[in-house]
Amino acid sequence: MRRIAIIMCVVGLPLLGGTFIAFPSLPEKSASSIRQASHEEQIFSQQLFPIQPDTASLTPDTWEVFNPEFDKLARKWQRERGFSGTILVAKGGEIVHSGAYGYANAATRDTMTLESVFQLASVTKMFTATAIMMLYDEHRIDFDDPIQLHIPNWPYEKMTIRHLLSHQSGLPRYDGLTRNVWDARSFMSYADVLDLYTQKKPRLFFQPGTEFDYNNSNYVILSALVEYLVHVPFEEYLNSRVFRPLGMTNTYFCNHSERLEKPLHTIGYRKSGYRWKAAEGDYLDGVFGDKGLHSNVIDLYKFDRAMTEGRVLNPGTQSMAYEPIAKSGEGRSYGFGVRMKEHWLGLGYHFGWWRGYRTAFIRDLQADQTVIVLSNRDNPDKTVNFWDVFYLLNDWR
Fold first, then answer.
1. How far is it, in rounded angstroms, from Cα 106 to Cα 84?
2. Looking at residue 117, what DSSP letter applies?
């Protein structure tokens, strides 16, 4: 059985079961399959190591910025929707408002702070796409490469990296395929998901590239692809190439059990009747790429600034992520790890939901505006409208 080595937390915790298994040699690309770098890309690629941190302006004094209008909105959310979490709003590289509301742990009355860490849920996809785009900048891949070029035993011939990034692969959902057959006492990993497709070869929902279907399976396979290409765990690639260089000290991948041992962690809650109940763990918590990244508003803002300033990706590559590829609904489309509103050029965003957590990361590249909202309360009947913050930033009231 082909296995990929998995490190469940990139901060030094041991592997959960099994041992590290070395990778076989990867097939060489033919000369015709290697994308030729432009002169500008060659210059940029020389600057990839290291990503330069620029955290001098990000000190506790500058993180804590109070704006009464945004605070009023957050307090209204608290009263009317039970909001608990953190908010950071920025424009033109300056923080407009940051605030922490509610409790990180309601049972212990642990007060929320800007440093509190949340499960990002599907906001993780923005980082998975970034890892893929970094490999593009390094000339290791092209977006139209067939998956079989890099994962030889991949069973679907016409499926490309672009299809996975844009949710046009046609893959069936891995959670549906495993819900009644996986031993829920052990965490699944993205290696297990890869095995599911390469060994069981489930039938596609549609031919790749013909339809859009938002599907977590796409980004799980992308995380496995990263590991195939760089020969280190997906989590460690992002940790060494992005999180550590940018000083994102409270950003990491880990499962539900490991999260409870982390400092600054929050507990996710879900409204059930009239009570808030702590969300339980799930065997899918060990699957990364579609979710699994934990972070706080401070670290996410560091990432936002590095992306805006071109310190992570070639600016031309980042702009490709914001090109609409697949229509995802009326007036909406999907690019590389970002959703877009078709009438708003340069606006990219992703929302997340998983086990008591609701998250939002909104970036307007043209106006240089950023909205980050992380919540550890999921109220299905009274969901917070994250766009309220963005509209307030633009004075659309």
1. 10
2. B
Alpha helices in the chain (DSSP H): 39-45, 60-63, 68-81, 124-137, 161-165, 174-178, 190-195, 216-230, 234-238, 256-259, 297-308, 315-321, 387-393
Note the pLDDT of residue 58. Answer: 64
| Residue written as token pair 């000339």 | 139
- And the tokens for 160? 């490309």
Any domain includes 195: yes
Q: Are 218 and 169 a contacting pair, CB within 8 Å? A: yes
Residue whose pair of structure tokens reads 């592997």 in the numeric block: 15
pLDDT beneath 50, residues of the chain: 1-49, 55-56
Measured in whole angstroms, how far is the alpha carbon of residue 149 from the centre of its chain? 25
Q: Report CA dihedral (55, 59, 62, 64) to the nearest 10 degrees.
A: 130
Q: Is residue 42 part of a domain?
A: no
Considering the chain, what percentage of its residues have pLDDT values greater than 70? 84
| Contacts with 102 (C-beta within 8 Å, 6 or more apart), sequence order | 78, 83, 84, 85, 112, 376, 377
Q: What is the pLDDT of residue 179?
A: 83
What is the rounded CA–CA span in Å between residue 42 and residue 119? 36
**Residue type for position 166:** S
Round to whole Å and give the CA distance between 192 and 114.
35
* Domain extent for 318: 50-393
- Asked whether residue 235 is assigned to any structural domain, the reply reads yes
As a whole number of angstroms, the distance between CA 256 and CA 53 comes to 30
For residues 354 and 17, give the distance between their C-alpha atoms in angstroms, rounded to a whole number. 25
User: What is the spatial distance between Cα 331 and Cα 316, in angstroms, rounded to a whole number?
Assistant: 24
Give the type of residue at 360: A
Number of structural domains in the chain: 1
Residue 376 inside a domain? The answer is yes
What is the CATH classification number for the domain harbouring 235? 3.40.710.10
11 Cβ contact partners less than 8 Å away, ≥ 6 residues apart: 252, 254
251 closest CA partner among 317, 311, 301, 286: 301
Q: Would you state the pLDDT for residue 10?
A: 37
pLDDT of residue 45: 39
Interacting residues of 19 by C-beta distance below 8 A, sequence separation 6+: none
Q: pTM of the prediction?
A: 0.86
